[in-house]
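Researcher: Re-running this chain for the archive, since the previous output was lost when a drive failed. Same request as before.
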Amino acid sequence: MAIERIESGPRMSQAVIHGNTVYLAGQVGAPGQSVTVQTQEVLKQIERLLAAAGSDKSKILTATIWLADMADFGEMNAVWDAWVGGKDAPARATGEAKLATPAYKVEIIVVAARD
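Model: Regenerated structure tokens:
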């Protein structure tokens, strides 16, 4: 079975497709912005990458969300909940982690189906 890579660079690909499964790299928003703005930007990036892979947010199987500070859980969830829209919610885990730079407040990783 072939492996397709989207927006591939020397270190990583933004998306990898194997069969009917799409794996996205961790997506982050503009450094230094609020959790709300960063989450909105991340979700737009996820939608764009899923579309490029022939999928969409209704086909997300799992989401892993890393927050720099769990105190931002409610703020991130407000954006997430509006985006999911109360349907097609994937399995999800959220944790606190030190992200690549202190200016990043949220990182989201998803796996989705294509069919």
